[in-house]
Specification:
TIM Barrel, alpha/beta
Length: about 260
């Protein structure tokens, strides 16, 4: 079985970490630099930082935020939000990100994935797929863009396959239906994507307790477990989570 990684997520708006439910009703969750340093100390394997308002506000990712956060951590930082060109990718990587994540721009221009993986190491390119249930789609899940505001009539699983074919190295799958609910990951959505590709899939949206993380691996077939609320508000501590997963037979890295 693969090594399971834990990935806290900093959803950014106006320079602060925020967290909502189903992509709305945002509340403050602290300073990004302080959170990033804390999570590395806690034993996080990777960190995500998503500029959640960039696409809606028709602007680029705030590079200052990337520089500030990357300067206090050594673990890999994946940055997303407002990245829509090869130049954007280069600027974000130069600012300190280890990887970039694209969603809306990739859906709008799938060739951007192919171009990005050719120009940059493909391991640096993550494609985020926000999905919601729609019985009219072959898989039952539809791709949604622009911070969860625009359904695009594209099947989420077929899109994941295309992203893999175009060279993406990781799929970040977020269920709009479960995001922020702390009722558990959408295992049906996560496994539908994970079973369709040979890439590591990040489970995102809905973690609320230790069992949810274990289920994301066993039932959702995810290799990377992303969460925000439970980490921000210390409902779950990373070291305790890793010890729990290890006791359940999963491979994790626990720092001494």
């Amino acid at each position: 079985m693969s090594l399971i990684k834990i990935m806290p997520c900093l959803d950014m708006k106006e320079g602060r970490v925020v967290k909502g439910v189903n992509f709305i009703d945002l509340r403050d969750a602290g300073d990004p630099v302080e959170n990033a340093a804390f999570y590395e100390k806690e034993g996080a394997d990777e960190l995500a930082m998503l500029d959640i308002a960039a696409t809606l506000e028709n602007r680029k990712t705030k590079l200052e935020w990337v520089k500030n956060v990357s300067s206090v951590i050594n673990i890999s930082l994946t940055v997303g939000g407002g990245i829509s060109s090869l130049e954007d990718i280069e600027l974000v990587l130069d600012a300190g990100a280890g990887k970039i994540s694209m969603n809306s721009a990739a859906v709008k221009n799938p060739d951007l994935i192919s171009e990005a993986t050719k120009k940059f190491n493909s391991k640096k390119i993550t494609i985020a797929i926000d999905g919601r249930r729609n019985s009219e789609m072959p898989s039952g899940f539809e791709v949604v863009v622009s911070g969860g505001t625009k359904p695009v009539g594209k099947d989420a699983v077929e899109w994941a396959k295309e992203c893999e074919e175009r060279g993406a190295s990781v799929i970040l799958s977020t269920s709009m239906d479960s995001d922020g609910t702390q009722a558990g990951y959408d295992l049906e959505f996560t496994s539908a994507i994970a079973d369709a590709v040979d890439l590591p899939v990040i489970a995102s949206g809905g973690a609320g307790k230790l069992e949810h993380f274990y289920d994301a691996v066993i039932k959702g077939h995810a290799e990377i477990l992303l969460a925000a609320s439970v980490f921000h508000f210390h409902t779950v501590r990373i070291k305790a989570l890793k010890e729990y997963l290890r006791e359940k037979g999963l491979q994790v890295t626990i720092k001494s």
